[in-house]
Specification:
globular; nine-stranded antiparallel beta sheet; nine-stranded mixed beta sheet; 25 helices; 37 strands; alpha+beta
Length: 872
């Protein structure tokens, strides 16, 4: 049974059990500060479990794209090495929100596995929670008794809290779980060892395929457990593991999905899969990682140097490095897998086909960039090796090894291999120290400590009234204390709120709440799951009192102008550049707007001018906002409303229309385009391959921009005595400046030529070395030119030249290659020591290096130090 059929049978089965079949949520998480990526099927339903939102359907089933590469759920190092770990995987799941519980969950799971999928009952084992003394929980007798109806009692295994008690996080809904394991060993292996003894023992052929979680407790911040008012079911079954069982193979990577990708990698590399374990691991890593990368890009997350983008870049580079290092793939190859992935998964996830060109371009550009980084890394490691040898060291410093890993993408084993080829070792202990420091910094930056919510009054839904009001009388329904980056503040939830929570690219509102006795500042507003959370540096002294919530009107007004301008910009981009343009990210605040979009070439100046004109024309048209709330999604689509891929929309949506611009949007907007005032594009750049970025300003910011430019124009005109043709006058001035600069360079070269003749006479022959040590009133660039001229005319030349120019000092060292080798000298190391005497720093290669500093008075000592090192 192919993997597409396995997936569909799961959906069809639960549809017959009255489950609503949901689409997968985006793999990249929004509106949840505790998660970067979806790492379990239940993530998108957290607000139901937490009671922040009421589910429309009490029974749901789906397949969810998941990624586990960071934090608690980090499978990255096992990926490709064993047979069943992945970065991205599909989690098949069914949920009950206060509907059915253990009886039905267990019965349907057994029915699906044994009657629909026809898995041999004699290969299955189940686990049941045994209880925990510390938590005061008892054995899950209900689950045990239900399982006895379907499976022999000797196949039911009691398991501890670590294996069979599932928790969402440090706090929140949790409960006992019951896992279904399968033994796929052959008969001879089963005869040797009972499968029961291998359950939960990390045996690659006795594995968990389905986890049934019974949510019945809530974990508080003090670690105590309290019963939930309603019980829920949350199940998760890895599609890849299920396919392995169904297809009778011994590895997830031997299933039809992965083999289709692996055979393409095998063909590209000219290496047969299955003949060498090292090569096989590399192919498995690459086949796995292309899924993580492709789905992240379709969800709008591009590789970058921070946050989720950094994680994606590291995964991508890990795959490319395996191809480069192990499979000898020295040219971009990873991007060619995108089309193959669409072939095998496009039916279930059509976004892979729709966005194929974009994914390929982003991946290929990242590959090319990484190849350049690898080349730089190889130069870096060559320098480190030469430095270690010249100073008689037998190992590479741990900090340097970590820099190669962190900056250049060199894994420890690659650096170790290159070092060993040069008879060197690496400082693994030092490397691990630096790695631990980085992880600690990362944890500290992202760690959020929060107390339990203190509930002041019961409230079903926190209504947002900010589309119509900037002020409202409110009550605080609950609050909690939060510590982040060593700063303490409070998060407040209101019964109703006019404050807009950050979302859709628009920043959250600021303002304050007040009553007759006190005023408390709200410095940010965000959405956590389905809660609008207001951040305040202090808790009101009387939090149960009635308050008036007041949004900062000026900043809200400016943000609205920028948000509406973003919609008009999007529409203009599609008109000018084509309908292939799709939004890939945005930022809207009171100062400016930023808009990222798909487009495969630089936007020309002519196109930018036309886009800007179109937006300003739309502003001047005085078009009124046409806002429709609670519109059925199908009706919105019929209206031509644009939706953002990766965003999850409900059955009812909000439509924002300004003439031809029609979008699904939850942000705030001006009532009429005339309120924007004016629009000015200020930059256009590349974010990644196939992704462009424009930045713009509107309203008062644009007015200030034009006033400043006009003032600068007047100042320049006055400086040039108000010529009739200002541009021509500036061009003429620039031409004269270029001619003068050339004259200066000519005179400088003549000075260097003249100096060279005099310097040749100062060269001393010391033990077969032509040595020159002197101080010149020259800049570093001229001294460098002089040094290489002297080296070209003198054999066995060693030059140490100090320079004084514009109050700054330089030290330049040049060493003939044969002298550096014979005397084990390294110019870079020498100049680093010398630079301390001029209160500066520097470095370089073994044969040439420079340093700069601010203490010219230390030049004589610096030159003497180098001379002593050379001849000492």
């Amino acid at each position: 049974m192919k993997i597409t059929e396995i997936r569909q049978k799961f959906m069809d089965f639960y549809a017959t059990k009255s489950h609503k079949i949901e689409k997968s949520a985006a793999m990249v998480v929004k509106n949840d500060p505790t998660l970067m990526f979806t790492n379990a099927g239940m993530n998108q339903f957290k607000d139901y479990f937490l009671g922040y939102n009421e589910p429309k359907d009490s029974r749901i089933a789906n397949t969810q794209k998941c990624l586990r590469v960071s934090g608690k759920h980090n499978d990255l190092e096992e990926v490709g090495v064993d047979t069943y770990h992945h970065t991205m995987f599909e989690m098949l799941g069914n949920w009950s929100f206060g509907d059915y519980f253990k009886e039905e969950a267990i019965a349907w799971a057994w029915e699906l596995l044994t009657e629909v999928y026809k898995i041999d009952k004699s290969t299955l084992y189940v686990t049941v929670f045994e209880g925990d003394k510390v938590d005061g929980t008892v054995m899950d007798q209900d689950a045990y008794d239900i399982w006895k109806k379907y499976i022999d009692e000797d196949r039911i295994i009691l398991a501890n809290k670590a294996d069979n008690f599932w928790e969402m996080g440090e706090t929140g809904p949790c409960g006992p779980c019951s896992e279904i394991h399968v033994d796929i060993r052959d008969a001879s292996e089963k005869a040797k060892v009972d499968g029961k003894s291998l359950v939960n023992m990390d045996d690659p052929q006795v594995i968990e395929i389905w986890n049934l979680v019974f949510m019945q407790f809530n974990r508080k911040a003090d670690k105590s457990l309290h019963k939930l008012a309603d019980t829920h079911v949350d199940t998760g079954m890895g599609l890849e593991r299920l396919a392995m069982v169904m297809q009778g193979v011994q590895s997830n990577y031997d299933t039809d999905l992965f083999q289709y990708l692996i055979q393409h990698i095998s063909k590209a590399s000219g290496i047969e899969y299955g003949t060498n374990e090292t090569n096989d691991i590399a192919m498995r890593v690459i086949a796995d990682h292309i899924r993580a990368i492709a789905f992240s890009i379709t969800d709008g997350q591009l590789p970058s140097n921070s946050g989720a983008g950094y994680v994606i870049r590291r995964i991508l580079r890990r795959a490319v490095r395996y191809g480069y290092q192990t499979l000898n793939l020295k040219e971009p190859f990873f991007y060619t897998l995108v089309e193959k992935l669409g072939d095998i998964m496009g039916d279930g996830f059509p976004e892979l086909i729709k966005q194929k060109d974009l994914i390929e371009k982003v991946v290929k550009e990242e590959e090319l960039s990484f190849f350049r980084t690898l080349e730089q890394g190889i130069k870096k490691i060559d320098s480190l090796i030469n430095s270690a040898k010249s100073s008689s060291q037998n190992k590479l410093n741990g900090k340097d090894v970590f820099e190669l890993y962190d900056t250049f993408g060199f894994p420890l084993d690659l650096t170790s291999l290159i070092a060993s080829e040069n008879n060197l070792k690496i400082d693994e202990t030092g490397f691990q120290v630096e790695l631990t420091k980085q992880k600690d910094r990362s944890r500290a930056a992202s760690k959020i400590e929060s107390d339990d919510w203190v509930v002041l009054r019961e409230d079903d839904v926190e209504e947002f009234v900010g589309y119509d009001l900037l002020e409202a009388d409110i009550y605080i329904t609950k609050y909690r204390k939060v510590i982040q980056k060593k700063k303490e503040f409070y998060q407040l939830v209101f019964n109703i709120t006019p404050f807009y929570a950050e979302g859709g690219g628009q920043v959250g509102d600021k303002g304050f709440i007040k009553n007759d006795s006190e005023t408390v500042t709200i410095f940010d507003t965000k959405k956590e799951n389905n809660l609008i959370v207001h951040s305040a540096k202090e808790l009101p002294k009387e939090p149960t009192m009635l308050f008036k919530a007041i949004v900062g009107a000026e900043k809200r007004s400016l943000s609205e102008a920028n948000h509406t301008a973003t919609h008009l910009l999007h529409h203009a981009l599609r008109e000018v550049l084509g309908t292939h343009v799709e939004q890939k990210g945005s930022l809207v605040n009171a100062d400016n707007l930023r808009f990222d979009f798909s487009h495969f070439s630089k936007v020309t100046d002519e196109e930018l001018e036309l886009i800007e004109t179109k937006v300003n024309t739309a502003i001047k048209a005085n078009t009124s906002l046409n806002e429709k709330r609670a519109v059925p999604i199908s009706v919105a689509e019929d209206m031509g409303a644009m939706a953002l891929f990766g965003e999850k929309y409900g059955d009812l949506v909000r439509v924002i229309q300004f003439d031809g611009s029609v979008e699904l949007c939850g942000g705030t907007h001006v009532k009429n385009t005339s309120a924007i005032g004016m629009f000015k594009l200020v930059s256009e750049s590349s974010v990644a391959a196939g992704i462009r970025r424009v930045e713009a300003i509107t309203s008062t910011t644009a007015e200030v921009y034009y006033k400043t430019r006009a003032h600068q124009f007047d100042e320049i005109s006055a400086m040039l005595k108000k010529p009739k043709k200002l541009v021509s006058a500036v061009e003429e001035l620039m031409q004269k400046n270029n001619l003068l600069q050339k004259e200066i360079e000519k005179l400088q070269k003549e000075k260097v030529k003249s100096l060279k003749t005099g310097l040749l006479s100062q060269v001393e022959n010391k033990g077969g070395i032509n040595f020159l040590s002197t101080i010149l009133d020259l800049d570093g660039g001229s001294i460098k030119d002089l040094c290489f001229q002297l080296k070209g005319e003198l054999e066995n030349f060693v030059g140490v030249i100090g320079g004084k120019s514009d109050g700054k000092a330089t030290v330049t060292i040049i060493i003939a290659e044969n002298i550096a080798k014979d005397k084990e000298l390294h110019a870079g190391n020498l100049v680093r020591e010398a630079s301390k005497l001029i209160q500066g720093g520097g470095g370089g290669q073994p044969f040439f290096a420079t340093a700069g500093g601010k203490n010219a008075g230390g030049l004589n000592d610096a030159l003497n130090l180098v001379s002593d090192k050379v001849f000492g």
